[in-house]
From TrEMBL:
Protein known as: Diguanylate cyclase
Lineage: Bacteria, Pseudomonadati, Pseudomonadota, Alphaproteobacteria, Acetobacterales
SMART domains: GGDEF
One protein family per Pfam: PAS_4
SUPFAM superfamilies to which the protein is assigned, alphabetical: Nucleotide cyclase (SSF55073), PYP-like sensor domain (PAS domain) (SSF55785)
Domain PAC residue range list: 89-141
Residue ranges occupied by any GGDEF domain in the UniProt entry: 172-305
Length: 321
């Protein structure tokens, strides 16, 4: 009687385990059972497919951490250590199989307690968050880039500028150029916004083509662009960047049989002990740009902290405002 009872118990246990396995295999989440030392004991179908392992094994025996990409293993190791201490732990990871797209996962490790309260295993649940990551990436791009030209927008540019100003070192100042397209309104008024948009995209492409790795180009809005240059030691260096920009626009822009000769007015400034905030650096560059426009457009002026050097008596007052 006892023998039959034991046999029935084992049979019931196997049936329960089979049902549990079927339930786990139906899940789109990757579910893994690990020993306390990180050895992979069991895994459902989704987990096997994600890691490129044969499904249907009753045991695996390999170290789970070794199945993760090299740069993810430290995160997994920390999460496993915390789970061994009796705490739930989580980390972000990914899986990479040859010939397949990268899949991103949110992983949660939960300690499994025995009847005596001791930790006997670790349950790892991994959920595919690839679509969420892609949606977040697109949203981030949309919030940081200009929709028309693809360049960084004003918000992203000012954020990047502020960071560069904080990181600058003595002798390696930050140079800022503000660029306005000359007579752009006439293009829009005479030929329509489609023509204006085409010209703006062409200008953006030219600016990007001559940008150095130490420089950042942005569209601030309308017909306003900006360039930020790291490691700009003096006005001559900033003037050379402006000359490079002007040269990139010497070739006219062709649009539906029409030819547009594009000019830019450029005002610039270099960071200093006085111009160490993004707001003051922008004001200085804008002051220089105003002087260019007042003197006939198409040129370049670099802001001087001694306004009399280029005849702009009021610029210092502008910076104090």
């Amino acid at each position: 009687m006892k023998k039959n009872s034991s046999h029935e118990h084992d049979l019931q246990l196997r049936q329960d385990l089979d049902r549990l396995t079927l339930m786990l295999d139906a899940s789109v989440d990757c579910i893994k059972l690990l020993s306390c030392d990180g050895t992979l004991l069991r895994m459902n179908r989704s987990g096997c497919e994600a890691l490129g392992l044969e499904h249907g094994k009753t045991a695996f025996g390999m170290k789970w951490l070794e199945l993760l990409p090299q740069d993810i293993r430290a995160r997994g190791r920390r999460a496993l250590s915390r789970a061994r201490q009796g705490f739930k732990a989580s980390f972000s990871g990914r899986s990479e199989l040859p010939g397949q797209k990268t899949v991103y996962w949110d992983n949660i490790l939960t300690p499994v307690m025995g009847a005596d309260g001791a930790i006997i295993a670790i349950l790892c649940l991994s959920r595919d968050v690839t679509r969420q990551r892609e949606a977040e990436r697109k949203l981030r791009i949309a919030s940081e880039n200009d929709a028309l030209t693809g360049l960084p927008n004003r918000r992203m540019f000012k954020k990047h500028s502020a960071l560069m100003l904080r990181k600058r070192s003595r002798g390696e100042e930050v140079g800022l150029l503000l660029l306005d397209v000359d007579y752009f309104k006439q293009i829009n008024d005479a030929f329509g916004h489609d023509a204006g948009d085409f010209v703006l995209k062409a200008i953006a492409a030219r600016l990007e083509s001559v940008r150095l790795p130490t420089e950042c180009i942005a569209r601030l809005g309308g017909d306003e662009f900006a360039l930020l240059a790291r490691k700009t030691s003096n006005e001559l260096a900033l003037e050379q960047i402006g000359a490079r920009i002007h040269a990139s626009l010497e070739e006219p822009v062709h649009y539906r049989g029409r030819i547009f000769q594009i000019g830019l007015s450029i005002g610039g400034a270099i960071s200093s002990s006085r111009l160490k905030e993004i707001s003051t650096l922008f004001k200085a560059s804008d002051t220089a740009l105003y002087q260019v426009k007042s003197s006939g457009r198409g040129g370049l002026i670099i802001f001087s902290e001694n306004p009399r050097e280029y005849g702009l008596e009021s610029s210092a007052g502008v910076l104090r405002a």
